Inverse folding.
């Protein structure tokens, strides 16, 4: 299967060269993320694409991840800070529009979502939304690798600073994980030559 | 890009036919999940493959997801209930073995992981481990679709019952999300004909 090759090709890049990822490729990666399955289908996260070098520099200051400043692009996965009645309404409207059906046809589903999501705490909904973003991260890693774009998934960043500099709070979002895009500087990245270390499959899969 | 087609092909199946997914395909899907990136590389989750119909029936009792009982296979993503010194030790040992280097060469990384992970609460580590499992779910959805195996990702199941019937507690694991595998019964699954509803890309990607 081609996917196994793709997954073996990728690694978490520490050192990028200065080549820029084309807009076309970035668009394909975000399109793939947008097609990712999420619980209930509500897609409770958004992607911010950053390629402004000044902004990247500010975002990366103080982080041990130099990739934040040095990569060609940065994808910021930002999850809903809560799930509101308006978020559900907007999701139902969009679904009805795409499927060319009246919104009322989705009333039962809407009620179900309201009961399920609005009875949880803000923290529970944010934690749940974050997990959905991580499914998207799985897709993004594969999409980029299929396009031979290198990546680094990162949790080690200053969430509060990201939220502030990207105006996420006003959008009801909080940054949860980031993915840098670019091209590996294989000669200067010691990790590029390391053998991928994974669990033996018979220990990873348990019975 | 082939991946966009693959992602468009898949949907969350409600009704499976009775065809069984081959062991070869299940093995490829779990191999792909095992290759998924995780924070720090520690892979803080495991996969349980269930295909015993009696067990599936028990696991699915009382759930609104009939797929639990009816699918060909069930992949249970089970995250570390905590991250312990032993978990870190075992990860370091495996990495050294795969890379054919002495364990001591990883001492600095081991110390870093201990500082980072052992100072968090059990809840924080479990939540973090769960998120890593969701990256794997993203991979699994794509791996299955590439093999034209249908899937249903599900959070709606009785975690406590799963943990008990699969003896997860003894293994330091807790079930977090499940994925059924099988083949769609397109004629009897009303969802098989629905248009995939996703956010307009210019609303999903924000600036």
């Amino acid at each position: 299967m081609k996917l196994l090759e793709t997954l073996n090709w990728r690694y978490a890049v520490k050192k990028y060269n200065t080549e820029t990822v084309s807009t076309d490729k970035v668009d394909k990666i975000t399109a793939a993320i947008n097609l990712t399955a999420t619980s209930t289908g509500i897609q409770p996260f958004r992607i911010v694409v950053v390629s402004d070098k000044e902004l990247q520099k500010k975002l990366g200051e103080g982080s041990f991840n130099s990739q934040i400043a040095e990569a060609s692009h940065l994808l910021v996965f930002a999850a809903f800070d809560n799930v509101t009645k308006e978020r559900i309404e907007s999701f139902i409207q969009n679904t009805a529009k795409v499927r060319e059906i009246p919104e009322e046809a989705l009333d039962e589903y809407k009620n179900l979502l309201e009961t399920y999501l609005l009875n949880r705490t803000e923290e529970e909904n944010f934690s749940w939304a974050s997990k959905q973003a991580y499914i998207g991260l799985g897709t993004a890693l594969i999409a980029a690798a299929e396009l031979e774009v290198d990546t680094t998934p990162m949790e080690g960043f200053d969430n509060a600073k990201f939220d502030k500099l990207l105006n996420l709070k006003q959008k009801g979002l909080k940054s949860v994980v980031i993915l840098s895009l670019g091209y590996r500087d294989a000669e200067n990245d010691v990790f590029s030559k390391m053998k991928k270390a994974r669990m033996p499959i018979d220990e990873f899969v348990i019975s």
